[in-house]
Design a protein that fits this description.
single chain, about 100 residues, mainly alpha
Length: about 100
């Protein structure tokens, strides 16, 4: 195992989890539902960034299967973040518009 790669992966996961925490904190403080989706999306991407090596080294899966699983997890994270950007926002009711 290459220690430099392990360190780089740990830094990547740490940054992803920090972004996840900040996004969730934004959701908690401001009640912004899209920020919850950003948090969940970055959590998936953070896990996906290291899961290939874990599946390959620890669980002895083929590199193809481990890579396929990693790609799927990262893609789900990106889709969740994309939903946070383009998803339906609650429509505000304007009571002065009674026409």
């Amino acid at each position: 195992m290459h220690i430099e790669l392990v360190i780089a992966k740990l830094i990547t996961v740490g940054l992803g989890l920090l972004i996840t925490y900040q996004a969730y904190n934004g959701y908690s403080v401001h009640g912004s539902e899209p920020m919850l989706y950003v948090a969940v999306g970055f959590l998936f991407i953070s896990v996906g960034s290291v899961i290939e090596g874990v599946l390959f080294d620890v669980f002895d899966l083929s590199i193809f299967l481990a890579g396929t699983i990693q790609t799927g997890i990262v893609a789900v994270g990106m889709l969740v973040i994309l939903y946070s950007l383009y998803g339906q926002l609650p429509q505000s009711t304007d009571e002065s518009d009674d026409s």
